[in-house]
Amino acid sequence: MSEDADHDARKEGTAAAVDDARRIAEQRREDGWDAVVVPAVDTAPVPEDAEQGYSGFVHVVPESVADDVEAACARAEFPQYDAYRRQVGEEFFFVVELLDPDTETALLIAGTYRTTDAAALYRQGSREGVVRTHLRRLNGETLGSVEHENVAKLFPEGMQTVAGRQ
């Protein structure tokens, strides 16, 4: 795939993930939930060995929704989650839906990453049985973090093959 075609595919995949997040959020709102869409500015799969003091998927939250995300994280614990995924080549596009039924709060995070960049985090998550989602402002301030026990939802099919090659 040419560089222009790769860029176009990433742009289209990202737009589709954000559209999916908006559609799911609207369904939640119709059911009476407070739902915030987070079109991540950047998503980075960070393994523990990255010497950051944390590991997991780090999503940079746009400033336009950062206060709403911070408020949602302050009132909700998000004990449930789901993930909606699609892969195009090495690019993985997904929406993570964080849910707190007690407060009827949902965060819908649209992100993307290259599968090869997530290999170390996949190996760590598979070994430990958990993966975390971190929501941060561009300046690095943490807005909220959530731990997930079903790690498979956050990775594409065949990730074990990709992770085994590295």
Explain what this protein looks like in three dimensions.
With 166 residues, this protein is α/β, with parallel strands linked by helices. It has one domain. The strands form 2 sheets. Strands 1-6-5-4 form a 4-stranded mixed sheet, with helices on both faces. It contains 4 helices and 8 strands, in the order αβββαβββαββα. The two termini are 23 Å apart.
List low-confidence stretches: none
How would you sum up the major sheet?
Answer: 4 strands, mixed
Q: Tally the helices: what do you get? A: 4
Question: Helix share of residues?
Answer: 25-40%
What is the 3D shape?
globular
Structural key phrases:
alpha/beta, 4 helices, DUF7529, single chain, 4-stranded mixed β-sheet, globular, 166 residues
Q: What's the SSE blueprint?
A:
Elements: H1 3-30, E1 34-39, E2 42-46, E3 56-60, H2 63-75, E4 80-88, E5 91-100, E6 105-114, H3 119-128, E7 131-136, E8 142-148, H4 159-164
Parallel strand pairs: 1-6, 3-7
Antiparallel strand pairs: 2-3, 4-5, 5-6, 7-8
In a nutshell, what does this entry contain?
By secondary structure, this protein is an alpha/beta fold.
